[in-house]
Amino acid sequence: MALLPFKKPKISEIEKLGWQAETNPAADKVESPELLPTKESQEQPSLGQIRGPEVTNQPISAGGLVSKRTMPVMRPAKSDELKHIESILEEDLKDIYFSLEPRLQEKFKNQGEQTAAKIETILFQTKVKAKSIFKLIFSWLKIIPGINKFFIRQAAKIKTSRILQIKK
Q: In the list 8, 31, 148, 156, which could disulfide-bond 137, CB 3.0-4.6 Å?
């Protein structure tokens, strides 16, 4: 298949279609003594004349889309299984959670939600590996400072067995 040569439309054809003709202003200029720069136009502007980009509090938009900073975050609704997994994970941890400092509470909560989501994906697989669920829970509980490692291991084993009952 041979390519046809590109034919550039004439300006009158473009105007018929309702488009504005794009011209290169630099190509239209003919060098004449009137258009050559003079000493007055080559002078440096003073600091008061230099203006940077204006800063506004308007949302930034690109292509008609408003930036993420102004849009509320929409999260999908939690499934019943995910809610059940989260309730199992948070059992017997209320006192410990409220004794943590706020920064650590936020980290514990976020990683707990991520752990629950990962566990949910593991449960929907054909072959469920209890060891991977145990490792997720154990690493999540290690965030809590000053708790015995054996206590964390025992709590992770109990929570793993309760979560595996969901699959059955």
A: 156
What's the predicted TM-score (pTM) here? 0.54
Return the biggest CA–CA distance within the chain: 90
> How do the domains of the chain map onto residue ranges?
80-167
Beta strands in the chain (DSSP E): 61-62, 65-66
More confident residue, 168 or 40: 168
Neighbours of 101 (CB within 10 A): 9
Are 157 and 125 within 8 A, CB to CB? no
The answer to whether 134 and 119 have CB atoms below 8 angstroms apart is no
Instruction: Give percent helix, percent strand, percent coil of the chain, each to the nearest 5.
Output: 50, 0, 50
Count the neighbouring beta carbons within 10 Å of the beta carbon of residue 160: 20
Residue at token pair 């550039």? 8
Percent of the chain exceeding pLDDT 70 equals 55
Integer Cα distance of 33 and 49 in angstroms: 27
The amino acid that residue 130 corresponds to is: A
CA–CA dist 152, 125 (Å, integer): 26
Residue 143 near residue 108, CB atoms below 8 Å: yes
Residue 156's nearest CA partner among 133, 131, 137, 129 is 137
